[in-house]
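Deliverable D5.2: sample structural annotation.
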Amino acid sequence: MKSYERCKPSGIEWIGKIPDHWKVKKLKYLVWTINEKAENDTNFRISLENIESNTGRLIGLENANSFQGELRKFQKGDVLFNKLRPYLAKVYLADNDGVCLGELLILRSKGESLPKFLFYRVLSYGFVKIVDSSTYGSKMPRASWDDFISQLLIPYPQNEEQTAIANYLDRKTGKIDELITKKQKLIDLLNEEKTAIINQAVTKGLNPNAPVKDSGIHWLGEVPAHWEIKKIKYIANLTLGKMLTGEDKGGNFLKPYLRAQNISWFKCDTSDVKEMWFSQSDLIKYRVNLNDLLVSEGGDVGRTCIWMNELDECYIQNSVHKITFKKYFNPKYFLYLFYSFGQKGYFLSIVNQISIGHLTGEKLKEVFTIFPGFDEQTAIVDYLDRKTDQMDDVISKTHHEIELLQEYRTALISEAVTGKIDVRI
């Protein structure tokens, strides 16, 4: 990609030089902000949840009519920009008329900045970053249109060149998005294959010719004839974590604890661990030890990881169950088994659910498990460790490739709309 031959200072610190023939104006002189209220009708509507970050694609439209709030009209060609800090990269170029909900600014070009160029302009990394730096408020930080966004200086060329830049970015980002979609599909297929391999191993074993028997569990079907079927309470000790304690009532100890948010499938996330007070007896009851299984009681119920001493000392809050297996049971085998149960939706089917599901200790204790002898459990674990490690490696590399493509996409947009590259033919 070539650069422009002649450039000049833009007078904008976060942009630097721009092509010599480009103009610079405050955003408020390039767009109108539209605040026309709409009635609560059935017109096409979107909220910030319907705009995909960084791409502007619409998602989840089947739920759009359920959102409540003040409605405002927009028309085809308007650019919708969110001013809430977590959602600044949610930018949408309207391809038809409709109404929008939430903290969406409706920007309508006055003519000097074409809609598609304006879309890429406010979607660009530099614009989002500088708006982010101006946000205020603690609960839900937001940027002010009148005090900041409207005052931003925007460099731009004539309409013909804006069209060339927009067309170039359409082509390039389209190809990048197509690559990202293919890689995401690969990840989905690998995850599906991973789930199938785990499910086969923990419900059928590694010997396809082994005699089978009816498990007596309608959703599970047949299992190897020599396997045992027992409720979890007969092969392990279960403990629900301690209720949150906000103050020291005397003689207690401030210790780190795990919440449901810390429990990911297979691994514990200790990047954000809170602390609370534990008594001397609590320290014995609620401490997690090597190879304990930790099961989410709420949220994504049944989500399970194995504790690998990620921290020297840690305890559990009452949104987490601790399962300590008796001798001659391999915890890693039951981790794989719980994953299989979770993917089948079994845990969700047994929870007490009104608004938020809860996998109570009583429910968890009654869960039937299936398992072979210890040696076969270990053989299955070794097999699944090898297979899933290989697949996880490919998945991780593919995620990294997607991240690189997304970074390239972001950089390309920023360079094109700030005049760092000349895309004219």
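Annotation notes: The first helix runs from residue 115 to 123. DSSP finds eight helices and 24 strands in the chain.
The annotation will be released with the project's public dataset once the embargo ends.
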